[in-house]
Design brief:
By secondary structure, the protein is mainly alpha-helical. 60% of the residues lie in helices and 0% in strands.
Length: 180
């Protein structure tokens, strides 16, 4: 199994620009992203950094939680990444990055445009959100290594609190980020 990647410069640059919005959850969110990106690389068999579109999508994929104070964060996250890509004249990445964000909580396998990046990203996020209970064939030892290198720092606890609050507010739509 490959060695975990220790730095994702594009992702870190983006996170730095949103540090105030993310506040005390910054380290937990950064580590979540690092775990997801490492799981993505392992699922794809990549050695080294994933492409720029992946690193950008990873940085923005849950960002709407903090910027818009909502668990229905996919549309705000796409809006933020679209503004980011426009400001850098990287419009050619919009479709792929938007698909990566919008479909990362799809319940079933993803088979549409950009499936070669979207599906492993979806799986990598699920590996992390499930705390490694869902593995998609990754060795348990690799998952544990990545988890120990990039500890939780309260990320999963924050998700549980937000989910409980969402359930109380809207019991018929408790997890608005999930896609069928």
């Amino acid at each position: 199994m490959m060695n975990p990647v220790l730095e994702f410069p594009v992702t870190d640059e983006i996170l730095t620009s949103f540090a105030l919005a993310i506040g005390p959850d910054l380290q937990g969110y950064r580590n979540h992203i690092y775990r997801v990106l490492n799981f993505y690389c392992a699922l794809r068999g990549n050695d080294g950094l994933p492409g720029e579109a992946l690193q950008i999508a990873a940085a923005f994929h849950d960002l709407g939680i903090w910027t818009d104070n909502t668990l229905d964060y996919l549309p705000p996250s796409v809006r933020l990444v679209t503004d980011y890509l426009d400001s850098r004249q990287r419009g050619e990445l919009k479709d792929e990055v938007s698909a990566l964000i919008l479909e990362h909580h799809k319940v079933r396998s993803y088979h549409s445009a950009y499936a070669l990046t979207v599906e492993p990203f979806r799986r990598a996020d699920l590996i992390d959100v499930s705390l490694g209970l869902v593995r998609f064939g990754l060795p348990r030892a690799f998952i544990k290594t990545v988890q120990s290198m990039f500890p939780d720092h309260g990320f999963h606890g924050m998700l549980i609190k937000l989910s409980a609050r969402q359930f109380i507010r809207s019991p018929l739509h408790p997890l608005p980020m999930f896609r069928w």
